[in-house]
Design brief:
This protein is α/β, with parallel strands linked by helices and 293 residues long. It has eleven helices and nine strands. The strands form three sheets. It has a five-stranded parallel β-sheet. Strand 6, helix 5 and strand 7 form a beta-alpha-beta unit.
Length: 293
């Protein structure tokens, strides 16, 4: 089994057998002519047609404004009904990026917010309708989080909603970390993974994922070379990392505590980890070495 197939199995399992183990586009904010950034404009039929034309399956990854939660629930109900009727076979699930993010990254600021207990219950209920994961920051409640000013004693914590999500079929997807305290952030990774595994997961694959390995987290190397100047220095930088000498027991010192925690848990079969190869700027040699480890 290849690493890519292992990752797909970690996310899905039996859902893909009916589609012949087609490749799956994960962490996808737009596809062909379909833009997922505006929930009102999301056309599931056009997305299905685009996936068929491309020869893949897809998990559209949506941003969610707080005042659009009702519209999202309605969309998920419609999606679930059509899947039950044998329609939309190439859209194998839906994902959310947020709302519980310690750092925005490229996520619209208005789609980062702190759900109440009732809002977590509503999001969890979407798991039975096809919501396969929601990206959240393990260090969302720590000092340095972008949500820090909104948190009070009444705010639900991970122990309140991670078991609720997981038992409903919604995986926490780890991403969008603060860079304030990497060691503490890594400890929060372990906390969420432990909570998820203790929460009665009965779905296919694994109960925790990340579609963000290396992205939006404290990292001691550069894995993406976006600017012209960075690209000019790319070969020299990657050579200096001596990829062939990387070992898992040195991952903390080479990569940093957060990516090391994710990679150790991926190697142990406790989390399905994906690297977002969203362009040539992401170094494939670094991605390959991470997968090998």
């Amino acid at each position: 089994m290849t690493p890519a197939t292992q990752t797909v199995s970690g996310l899905f399992g039996p859902e893909l057998r009916a589609t012949g183990q087609l490749p799956v586009e994960v962490h996808c904010h737009g596809f062909g002519p379909v833009d997922f950034s505006d929930l009102d404009a999301l056309d599931l039929d056009r997305l299905e047609a685009a996936a068929v034309a491309e020869g893949v399956c897809v998990i559209p990854t949506l941003y969610l404004h707080r005042d659009c939660l009702g519209a999202f629930e309605a969309m998920m109900s419609a999606y679930a009904a059509r899947r039950a009727d044998g329609d939309l076979r190439r859209i194998v699930g839906v994902a959310l990026e947020g709302p519980l993010l310690a750092s925005h990254g490229g996520t619209p600021a208005a789609t980062v917010w702190l759900p109440t207990r009732r809002e977590w219950e509503r999001l969890a209920a979407c798991g039975r309708k096809g919501l396969v994961y929601t990206v959240m920051s393990p260090d969302a409640f720590t000092k340095g989080s972008g949500l820090e000013g909104e948190i009070d004693a009444s705010a639900p914590r991970f122990a309140d909603f991670v078991p609720l999500l997981v038992s409903s079929g919604v995986r926490p997807a780890l991403g969008h970390f603060s860079r304030k305290d990497p060691s503490r952030s890594a400890a929060s990774v372990e906390q969420i993974i432990d909570l998820a595994w203790q929460s009665g997961w009965d779905g296919p694959g694994l109960p925790v994922v990340t579609d963000h390995l290396f992205n939006d987290m404290p990292l001691l190397i550069r894995h993406a070379f976006r600017t012209r100047r960075a690209r000019a220095e790319r070969d020299e930088a990657v050579a200096s990392y001596r990829l062939e000498e990387w070992t898992m027991d040195r991952a903390d010192e080479i990569l940093g505590p957060v990516p090391a925690a994710i990679m150790r848990n991926a190697a142990a079969g406790r989390i399905a980890a994906c690297i977002n190869l969203d362009g040539e700027h992401v170094d494939s040699g670094i991605a390959k070495r991470a997968i090998e480890l």
